[in-house]
Amino acid sequence: MHRSILLLSCLLFNTFPLGAQDVAPEHSKQSDDSTKQHYEMPAVVVVGSADRRNTIAGSGTIQDENFLKETRPFNVDELLRHVPGVHTRDEEGFALRPNIGIRGLNPTRSTKVLLLEDGLPLAYAPYGDNASYYHPPVERFVRDEVLKGSEQILFGPQTIGGVINYITPAPPRETHGLVSFSAGNHNTYDGRIRLGNNGLMMEVVHKQGDGSRENEEPGFTDANFKGLLLVDENNTIALRANYYQERSAITYTGITEQEMKNFGIRYNPFDNDEFVASRYGLSATHESNLSKSILLTTSLYGSYFSRDWWRQSSSTTDAQGGTGVRDARLAGLRIDPDTIASTQGRLRKYTTYGLEPRFLIRHSAFGISNELNTGVRAHFEIQKREQQNGTTATARTGMVVEKNDRRTQAYSGFVQNRFLFGAWSVTPGLRLEHVINERTDNRTGASGSTNLTELIPGLGATVAPDEHTTLFISAHRGFAPPRTEDLILTPSGQPEATFTDVDPEHSWNYEAGIRTNPESWLSLEAALFRNDFQNLIAVGSIAGGSTPLAQAKALFQGVEFFGGIDSRSGEHTGVFFTLVYTFLPTAEQKSPFIQVANDLPIAGSREGNRMPYAPEHLLTAGIGVGANRHWDVRLEAVSVSKQFSNFANTEESSSDGQSGALPAYTIFNATANYELQSLSSTLFLTIKNIADYEYIADRTRGIRPGATRRVQAGFQWDF
Question: Are 57 and 474 in contact (CB under 8 A)?
Fold first, then answer.
């Protein structure tokens, strides 16, 4: 397999010359921007166009480039709050390590969500450790799409919540680019340059500022390259390369109840902590029209992610700095981190690569129209994990106390056929996952391996009673593999690995809904959903810093709704309104969460309790006025109801800040855009959290606040 990937790589990068041909193939199209012509890049299609969305047997949301320009999200959290069923939780204000949950699933580190970019895996270890300690900036995207329901089994390995796919801009046919810059309070600066011509494009984004707390200074640079090779009228190759560098003064721990009372919710004493990360990504996607009815899309992808996180505290209850420091924090006393003779470095390196050919075949078997999607994937992950313990407040080296390798091989295949009967469609599908995990302790030589095989079926159907309306229904098997570190243990000092009895995540997921555009100015979508888990895994950092690995049965069911009204027409002034609402009456522990290590229940976990970080109500509503391509003003409200932070559903805040209810909150945002058509420029102003409302966003490792008020003014020049 490794030789096959190397051979394909050589063919892709050496057989064809760089640079686009003068004439585009028939499948290349212009972008939505009528003033600029762009190529359509070969890509793995998740939702696709609005027309294609109407044939999908499940709920699907598309947010296009115009929406991003109108709302000016500062980070991906703000973008995804406009999607029904999606719950995002702030951490440092920049969403560099986003916490995204779908339909009640815990948002911590986005472990229950499948993240893609241009249809390819975005996470550094989606099989072996699906946690987001890296995420591209929202400025890199021109579109995003969220898919739920049975058709997510075309992707994977995560099929339990939904698929989020971010789409980057396509290279232009002629010279085109943009320059944008914004600045605001909290020392925030955001600059972007994009330049492209003749099927090539380069973009660089730099962003920095103060975070949501004291002594946090997120900052990064992101560079993205795309190239299009038009081989002939039937073969096109998309090349992508990106580089990301982050250096942030980010700490891991939250604060205690008394620290919040004495110093405020944005207090953070750990000014010596540092997060340094870099990522390199490469991919090539070859699209071949084998005939008028057969399209082959082959993707080769790879990335290298390095992360060093040096910190003096990981939670409000650890004793890394000594029991005196811990007790002082619990008592609400101000501490001096320079006197703590300890710094721990969590050093991680991830190499991920894979190969995935996909066929789209339109055929007329059984005398009816059909669409067949099928393909296979070979995917590989190498994790190198090390912990060094330093003996000074600013140490960046120390004694090695952990050094192990984790390897994952995953082989999958999928097939889905859409049967079309006039206004009806029926779409059965099946996915097969075979995952091999290995772990080695490089200090003792202890090693072990294990594997699992899973069949994931799905079935969906749609009917279109008229040209404006689609009814859909689907059912599918939810599956997510357990982490490598949860399956295989290499205890300190032991010469042999041991294995834990942790199962994959399994659920049966159902949904039924309607989407309709009865008028050009009105769009509606609503869905009922039920996700019934036979096994849901809670990893150690999800519901309190000391909560051990556990698993149990759980049930999530509710309603999602989207409504949009837009009376703007042409260049005439009009009003617009959007309402995104999720009602989650059931997020229930159907059995106590049982610790994997000792078969004992998690303290306070019991049947009938609500799941942590699963608010009953999520609401994002926006209202505005404007004229297309001239100006617009938008006011927005974001409301999140009360959440519990632990399985016991504790109401009162604990002294360590890790348990207790998170009160409901509502914040208001405003955005204004004014286009200077004669200069091909746009001036914009955004105010996020207008009232600077302080609220608790997270208690996982102690109390952490939501994003502070952020005022940004800037311009964008398109040329």
Answer: yes
Question: What integer best gives the mean pLDDT of the chain?
Answer: 92
pLDDT tens, 605-640? 999 999 999 999 999 999 999 997 789 999 999 999
Q: Can you give the pTM of this predicted structure?
A: 0.94
Q: What angle do CA 155, 166, 462 make, to 5 degrees?
A: 55
Among the ranges given (8-12, 57-61, 516-520), the one the predictor scored with the smallest mean pLDDT: 8-12
Residue 546 banded pLDDT, cuts 50, 70, 90: low
Q: Where are the domains of the chain?
A: 2-718
- Report the b/e string of 482-508 with b at 16+ CB within 10 A: bbbbbbbbbeeeeeebeeeebebbbbe
Please check whether residue 165 is in contact with residue 154, taking contact to mean a CB–CB distance below 8 angstroms. Answer: no
* Rounded Cα distance, 228 and 532, in Å: 44
Q: How buried is 33 (Cβ within 10 angstroms: 0-12 exposed, 13-18 middle, 19+ buried)? A: middle
**652 has pLDDT over 50:** yes
pLDDT value of position 7: 37
Phi-psi region of 324 (alpha: psi -120 to 50; beta: other; left: phi over 0): alpha
Pick the CATH number of 2-718 from 2.40.170.20, 3.30.1330.40, 3.40.50.1220, 3.40.47.10: 2.40.170.20
Tokens representing residue 691 in the block: 């009232």
**How many angstroms separate the most distant Cα atoms in the chain?**
78
First to last CA, the chain: 45
Coil/strand/helix, residue 516: strand
* E strand segments, 316-423: 343-363, 369-390, 399-421
User: Measured between alpha carbons, how far is residue 298 from residues 14, 267, 287, 410 in Å?
Assistant: 16, 50, 7, 17
Positive or negative: CA dihedral 540, 541, 544, 545: positive
Q: What is the 3-state secondary structure (H, E, C) of 457-511?
A: EEEEEEEEEECCEEEEEEEEEEEECCCHHHHEECCCCCCCCEECCCCCEEEEEEE
Helix (H, G, I), strand (E, B) or coil at 66: helix
Q: Can you read off the two tokens belonging to residue 559?
A: 């309603």
Q: d(Cα 372, Cα 416) in Å, to the nearest integer? A: 6
Residues 138/76, Cβ–Cβ less than 8 Å: yes
What pLDDT does residue 53 have?
A: 82
Q: How many CA atoms lie within 13 A of 581 on its CB side?
A: 11
For 213-241, the DSSP string reads STT---EEEEEEEEEEEEEETTEEEEEEE
Pick from 622, 441, 468: nearest CA to 50? 468
Candidates 454, 409, 458; CA nearest to 432 is 454
Per-residue model confidence (pLDDT) at position 622:
98
Q: Tell me how far apart the alpha carbons of residues 467 and 669 are, in angstroms, rounded to a whole number.
A: 36
- The answer to whether the beta carbons of residues 558 and 585 sit under 8 Å apart is yes
Tokens of 219: 């900052």
Give residues with Cβ within 8 angstroms of 551, minimum separation 6: 502, 503, 535, 536, 537, 538, 593, 594, 596
The Cα–Cα gap between 577 and 561 comes to 14
